[in-house]
Design brief:
Structural class: alpha/beta
Shape: globular
Strand content: 15-25%
Bound molecules: guanosine-5'-monophosphate
Order of helices and strands: HEHEEEHEEHEHEHHEHH
Length: 218
């Protein structure tokens, strides 16, 4: 009997459960930003957290959309006021996740996606171990080098720095729940969506609520 499928629209509506926090991270140049952008196109329950940074805006980047662009002083003040869920220095600039919008979204049942570096993800894990941690891997280190070179945004010295950091970061994968290999983008996006879908179907998170809905019907 296809009982649950028939009831699925009702069962999907299980009220104000807190949202899930998904953390997508991995080495620089691995394509985590592209994966997140693609995932967000179709996952209507998930919203991206807009980070704060001290780096200069790149062409086309908009304050409040891509990042909150802050001065070093403004960023430091926010650290002192405990306004970040995590922050880290990434290649000479500071990046941080503002805690308030994340909390508000999670409390109102919206899922939040953080696209952050590995140090930041490890810090989130300490503060919020209930998060779902996804590590994006390159298919090979040679391919990572090729992508960093083709991006054309970094000098050869910076590329070498990013690559030497990458292996140390990959070893931290064991702190994460899932890995996604970004070889074929479409496949990597599908895998990430599958992880999100699976996490929405955890009996431990939703079983009691589902039972309540079905019992009310009796
Ligand atoms: P980009 O300057 O290229 O936008 O980002 C550089 C790196 O900073 C990327 O690896 C990106 O994932 C990371 N990043 C962006 N926002 C945050 C954040 O809020 N916290 C941390 N820890 N890393 C971030």
């Amino acid at each position: 009997m296809c009982y649950f499928r028939k009831e699925q629209p009702l069962l999907k509506n299980y009220g104000n459960r807190p949202g899930e926090l998904f953390i997508v991270s991995g080495p620089s140049g691995v394509g985590k930003g592209t994966i997140c952008k693609e995932v967000l196109k179709t996952e209507s329950t998930v919203q991206l957290s807009v980070s704060a940074t001290t780096r200069e805006p790149r062409e086309g980047e908009v304050h409040g959309v891509n990042y909150f662009f802050l001065s070093k002083e403004e960023f430091t003040e926010r650290i002192e006021n405990n306004e970040f869920l995590e922050y880290a220095e990434v290649f000479g600039n500071f990046y941080g996740t503002p805690i308030k919008p994340v909390e508000e979204k999670l409390n109102s049942g919206i899922d939040v996606l953080l696209e952050i570096d590995v140090q930041g993800a490890i810090r989130v894990k300490k503060n919020y171990p209930e998060g779902i941690f996804i590590f994006v891997l390159p298919p090979t280190l040679a391919e990572l080098r090729r992508r960093l070179t083709n991006r054309g945004t970094d000098s050869p010295e910076v590329i070498e720095e990013r690559l030497s950091k990458a292996m140390g970061e990959i070893k931290q994968m064991f702190e994460y729940d899932y890995f996604v290999v970004n070889d074929d983008l479409e496949e990597a996006v599908a895998t990430t969506k599958a992880i999100i879908l699976a996490e929405h179907h955890r009996v431990k998170d939703h079983g009691l609520e589902l039972l309540r809905i079905l019992e009310e019907e009796e």
